Amino acid sequence: MEELSAFTGRETIFAAKMAQTNPQPSQHGPWKITVYDQENFQGKRMEFTTSCPSVTESSFDNVRSLRVENGAWLGYEHTGFGGQQFILERGEYPRWEAWSGSNAYHVDRLMSFRPISSANHKESKITLFEKENFMGHQWEVQDDFPSLQAMGWGNSEVGSMKVNSGGWVCYQYPGYRGFQYILESDHHGGDYKHWREWGSHAQTSQIQSIRRIHQ
After folding, report:
1. Which residues 6+ apart lie within 8 Å of 118 measured at CB?
2. What pLDDT shows up at residue 18?
3. Structural Rg of the chain based on CA atoms
4. Which pLDDT band, with edges at 50, 70 and 90, does 17 fall under?
5. Which end of the chain, N or C, is more open, meaning fewer C-beta atoms within 10 Å of its C-beta?
6. Residue 110: alpha-carbon gap to chain centroid
7. CA angle 158-164-167, nearest 5°?
8. Whether 183 contacts 72, CB under 8 Å
9. CA angle in degrees (0–180, nearest 5) for 143-172-189
10. 82-88 β-sheet, strand order
């Protein structure tokens, strides 16, 4: 349990950021996002309440800042919901660093996005499996963990996962860093049999921190 203390500072900072970017839910609808083509909420703006497969269809060359007003959203590096994934929860994102969430993988492109309908922070459950196809040692998770290894997971990799309910963000490194993989109970039937199913950008089975998505 000593390793966990190494991430306490990061977790505290993370919790503070979450408090800032997740105010009380609005009553105006389930999903709403406003995107801008310039940093700091400047330039051309457009509101969306449904999926956007390509911002170029709205005469944007890129999204450089955004506000999530309702619901949780999933942003993508490329058009057509491809490339790196970025979790977008309620709050303000004045520059791309605010959603890239990693010192290792900075991507200044956000070209498509969609709502996450399964997000349910209070009733989320996921089962981790040691090997592919739901084999080997398993562990049912219902809480946020900045370090899976510190809490008893045997190695730095996860073979497969079953999302029983809600939506989850899995991170390559401890402290919610590295590649982000968003796993949802209403995609793949909640079954992710192999790390390649985590996203088109997935290159490894390494997962070392995990948290529930805030709706």
Report:
1. 163, 165, 166, 167, 184, 185, 186, 187
2. 40
3. 17
4. very low
5. N
6. 14
7. 80
8. no
9. 60
10. 82-88, 73-78, 112-115
What is the pLDDT, as a whole number, of residue 90? 95
Tens-place pLDDT, residues 53-104: 999 999 999 999 999 999 999 999 999 999 999 999 999 999 999 998 765 5
φ/ψ of 55, rounded to 5, equals -70, -20
Kindly give, in sequence order, each residue whose CB lies less than 8 Å from that of residue 108, ignoring residues fewer than 6 positions away.
Answer: 62, 64, 96, 100
Residues in Cβ contact with 9 at an 8 Å cutoff, skipping those fewer than 6 apart: none
- Residue 170's beta-bridge partner residues? 181, 210
**162 or 30, which is more confident?**
162
Q: Which residues pair with 113 in a beta bridge?
A: 52, 75
User: Around 66, how many Cα atoms within 13 Å sit in the side-chain half-sphere?
Assistant: 35
Q: Which residues pair with 139 in a beta bridge?
A: 128
Taking the CB of residue 97, how many other CB atoms lie within 10 A of it?
A: 12
Q: Is the pLDDT of residue 173 over 80?
A: yes
- 93: tokens are 């994102």
Q: What is the mean pLDDT of residues 92-121?
A: 87
Taking the CA atoms of 167, 127, 81 and 14 in sequence, report the sign of the dihedral they define.
positive
Give phi and psi for 133, each to the nearest 5: 60, 35
